[in-house]
Specification:
Strand content: 35-45%
Family: Belongs to the RimM family.
Strand order of the largest sheet: 1-2-5-4-3-6
Main location: cytoplasm
Subcellular location: Cytoplasm
Helix content: under 10%
CATH architecture of the largest domain: Beta Barrel
Number of domains: 2
GO molecular function: ribosome binding
CATH class of the largest domain: Mainly Beta
CATH topology of the largest domain: Elongation Factor Tu (Ef-tu), domain 3
Mean pLDDT: 90
Keywords: Chaperone, Cytoplasm, Ribosome biogenesis, rRNA processing
Distance between the termini: 42 Å
Number of strands: 12
Length: 172
């Protein structure tokens, strides 16, 4: 069974030549939306995804604008509004050491180097210089863990565990 990963959501059309406005959900828009790449459109009422090939990509304001081969007018793409753009797991590329896909980190149990369980990563924020992992603590509160070498000592996506060395005040 193929696993699928969201790379964006089609929120509207753009102009009359078949472009769609996408809110991107990928860390690699230049790679995912490269001319010739295959993407898959998942609409709510369809049982099978629609395979499309990227014809063009450009950025406009906070949106990625895409057009697809064979979809040359607004009438061709109007039906895609609200649909998700996805790629199969087989299209996920290799990352450099110390880099992880969000789906590998979300759900991991965070433990201090002393063995104290903090909780599980529930989401990842990308505010700027480094990612911040939002950890739901056992008491229901949240801890914000910066993904920096001084704090995150070891990540094991297979075992779904992360070992940290909390900075002073981090877990208060």
């Amino acid at each position: 069974m193929e696993r699928w990963f969201n790379v964006g959501k089609i929120v509207n059309t753009h102009g009359i030549r078949g472009e769609v406005r996408v809110i991107s959900r990928t860390d690699f828009p230049e790679e995912r939306y490269k001319k010739g790449n295959k993407l898959y459109i998942f609409r709510e009422r369809d049982t099978e995804p629609i395979e499309v090939t990227v014809k063009s990509h450009r950025v406009h304001k906070s949106f990625d604008l895409l057009s697809f081969e064979g979809y040359d007018s607004i009438n061709d793409v109007e039906r895609f509004k609200g649909a998700m753009l996805k790629v199969p797991e087989s299209q996920l590329g290799e990352l450099a050491e110390g880099e992880y896909y969000f789906h590998e980190i979300i759900g991991c149990t965070v433990v201090t180097e002393g063995g104290e369980t903090i909780g599980a990563v529930k989401e990842i924020l990308t505010p700027g210089a480094n990612d911040v992992w939002v950890v739901r603590r056992e008491d229901g509160s949240e801890a914000l863990i910066p993904y920096i070498d001084e704090v995150v000592l070891h990540v094991d996506p297979e075992r779904k565990t992360i070992i940290i060395r909390p900075m002073e005040g981090l877990l208060e």
